[in-house]
Amino acid sequence: MKAVFAAGSANVGDELNEWIWPALIGDIHQDNVAVLGIGTLLNKPFCRRLDDARRILVLGTGAGYGTVPTIDNRWSFHAVRGLRTASALGLDPDRAVADAAYLLASLDWNPVHGQRSDVVVVPHHRSLRYVNWERICERAGVRFLSPLLPAAEFMRAIARARLVLTEAMHGAILADIARVPWQGFGFGGQFNEEKWLDWAEMFGLDLQIRYLPGYYDPALFSESRPWRYHAAKLVKVRMSRIGLGREKWQRLTLPSFRPDKSADRLACQLRALSGLPGMLSDDHVMRERVDQLYERVDELRAELKATPARRLEGDGISFLNTLEGA
Q1: Measured distance CA(312)–CA(100) in Å, rounded
Q2: What is the pTM of this model?
Q3: Where in the chain are the domains?
Q4: I need a surface site. Which of 42, 166, 256, 322 has the fewest CB within 10 A?
């Protein structure tokens, strides 16, 4: 049996699958059984890699980034990320529980906290190529936190922060798990609000995403392309806005031909966000969702004729460090 996820991206949200599933279902050995956990995986492009799977078990993933896959009798849905995913797939609403990353909430993150001082900024992993986030965060007086860091290092920085500003949804989810206030922001065309709502609605959160003007520095992204390539993107967006181009062109992230000025503006906006109080899910709601996720883990194990699993327990950073060193 194998957990299937967006391997190779080094994105902490995707890579958490390598920690959670070996600990919860690693004792079950069955061939050609795929488990879909953390990530926005329920789309046709991703699910093509499941063509050879004998069984496909879903626990905590969500829809997005394209048309949902065709469902056949190989699929078992134990939990999905939210009601929007359940609706897109035609599932019973009780299949909507939470993002599977919340299984980490049974671990103890309090020993990490200490004195919380930093405001950290977590861009989406696709935004990293657009601008020099580290330099911009220095200007803003906040700390850049790459979503490509090893999980233990990433979570240690999250748990010690006083506020997490994040474009990455799993930056918000992991902050929520560690009970650190967070604020979501959008930057450019890669931001997917639908998946954020799919997750947040299950926790009764009234999302207040702050949208920052996205751009890229032509000296950093597609730097080998000629000037006309970057200028053509501006033309495409303007055409699409008057109905002469493709609808998807409206989501293009555009170049800035004055990147220093744009960086100053972005730093100023991040500085302003760092003064916000941030959000957190309700303690009771989170405990309830975590309990439901573990019930669905046992449901999945029962389908495979296995006994119930033990919850993840102990210090969270030690858990991640142990598996990184394995």
Answers
A1: 13
A2: 0.92
A3: 2-105+282-324, 109-273
A4: 322
